[in-house]
Amino acid sequence: MKYIYWTVMLSLFCFNIINAQKIKVINKTNLQPIENVSIFNKEKSKSTITDSKGEADISVFDKKEILFFQHPSFKDLSISYEKIETSDFKVNLSESIVHIGEIVISANKWEQNINEIPNKITSITIDETIFNNPQTSADLLKTSNEVFIQKSQLGGGSPMIRGFAANKVLLVVDGIRMNNVIFRSGNLQNVISIDPNIIEGTEIIFGPGSIIYGSDALGGVMDFHSKTPKFTTNGTQNIKFNSFVRYSSANNENTGHFDINLGYKKLAFVSSLTYSDYSDLKMGSHNNSEYVRIEYAVKYKDNDTIVQNSNKNIQRFTRYDQINFMQKVRFKPNNLIDINYIFHFSKTSDIPRYDRLIQYKDNQLKYIKWNYGTQKWQMHVLNLKYSKQTKLYDEIKISSAYQKNEESRISRKFGKTNQKNQIEKVDMVSLNLDFDKIIKEKNTIFYGTEGIYNYVNSSAYETYTDTNIQTAIGTRYPDGGTNYFSFASYINYKYNFSKNLIFNSGIRYSRIILNSSIDDTSFYHLPYDIIELNTGALNGSIGMVYKPNITQQYNLNISSGFRAPNLDDLAKVFDSEPGVIIVPNKELKPEYAYNIDVGSNYNFNNRIKFDLTVFYTILKDAMVRRDFQFNGQDSIEYDGEMSKVKAVVNAASANIYGGSFSCYSDITEKFSFKTNITYMKGEDDEGLPLRHVSPLFGSTHIMYNTTKLKIDIYSDYNGQITNKNLESSEQNKPYMYATDDNENPYSPSWLTFNIRTAYQVNSNTQINFGVENILDNRYRPYSSGICAPGRNFIVTLRVII
Q1: Contact, 547 vs 500, CB < 8 A?
Q2: 3-state secondary structure of 592
């Protein structure tokens, strides 16, 4: 009997091996395998899905059946089993510009179909990132065509979303908030610390995101997900290697990158390294002659000297370099537990702030040096996900993180020997507990709690270049150290009334405590030595998704958000513009945003899709810069000159409204079209324009896809902002703007024509070639202190094994 049993079992095993038939699904353009492709028959009674290698077992299907292939980023395909057999069980899918049924995480930290979320969310896939070839993560966000990017220097990029920027929008990396207590209200470049070349998905949630993410998410959330370590699926090591080298002519960029995945059954690793070196950026040669760099200041034989620029389109000085490293370790001992350790590291060289280097005073360049010093960021994350159905949760995520940030400012005025150095160091610890629970199929609850601690150390000194003598000077933030605590709890509820109607709501309470001490008040003669904040906020949201049929969807979302003053708002002492000094205001209160979104999209046979979203935001107790008095004076001497006193104060209110429109179309099997346009307007209670409300901007693309080749011909464009619509601090920066017919500064409109191509030599090698700003226009995006690249040739060689 035992002999007969083992004979039968062996026969069945051999039969299964013989009859098991694997299919491989491949991207027609780049020849790479496609994961998570759904394969099913006409009745949908049989189905399977491709793995990380693009493979799936289709032995369950009959040889006379028609198989259907479906993926959110690819065109649907139906093909007979017999034809698949004649194609050696390989199927090619064509990329689609019309993405249907995407899965996103940023709205509630859990995977969810975008069609069930009332918020406006835009995602950028890893394939789009690879094709678009962004130099930095700021440039990556720009490729969404729905986030406006401002730059004050080449090593910069400050995202603007719905009239908010800097510390009023939130950066999230692998589920951990990146914003710290010294994120400033002016434009900032911290987003470039994130390596775009290791990001496998980016999601942008528009509007207040305070229910899930707390303070700072007034304009929106930018959520970056780095590559996830992949396990083996067949018992052998899962090794995946990706590398590229890139050159860009406008700034002589030389970038090299590699990342490797090493996966076993229960243990997997991802390692990544990127190095970039950039020379001085060349602007365009046509239009807006005010922007040219006529001269620059250098130190020559111990003397400061003005040198005539041999090429007025070269923006001296803008060069810098950067290195990024990432390490992930993933351990999954069983189907219940998933543990991830993540380490990010970024370091830049000194980054010259170009807009300061082109300032004049008394017809002479004001600064010979104004650099952001080496910017360092490191983040350690330990994540645990536990999946088991209980009365309280189906899944629980525990995320603990430690971040260390270091930044500095180095400046010396022309003809002066004293060089200022201000150094800021921030240690940040966070702990998040997030739960989700499905109740009776139609009800889902997401809830959690968060704790954050920041410690800030601020120091400053002055070095005399002729004697090397070093003396203490006033710090940017209080020199006695700052402790910052944030505690919060939230709950979010989703109810599916039917497949056509979905209800979402949420509520969050946050508590913010800040204590900052000033050891030495002699530098600024402050009338106090302690700055404190203890405040809380209750926020909520309610939204509906209505899908009357498969071609239409309507969204309504009403939400509130808040931002508590951080250390940069409360206690900064810094010159923000020529002849102006920002001073502390210990009476500053939180600001609150109340927002309504109405959106609709129409999908015609998965070939044409229209998206329209309009919004209106009311900002109460808005934090804005206004004239102020310091010790009873409206002007004081700072850094050797009389400066007008300003401070961040609470305005009564501000209003921002606008909308965005998108159209995506797969015109034919090979040609696609997309366009995005965004318009907004905002002003405070005095009728004054808001600083971070961007001009009308958009992009239009015509794409061609065929076997091994992809071409994108596109145009980016911006509307103008007239002088009267410039915020007052921007009007005081004529060196950054063009001049209108009345010799007043304004931001002109601009348009560029561009082309990108990708050619897949074979399954392992890809060549990218592009030309940006083909007409070589000279322009500056609104509020930017540096001109955009002129005609720019980009070449990339990529190897994937």
Answers
A1: yes
A2: strand
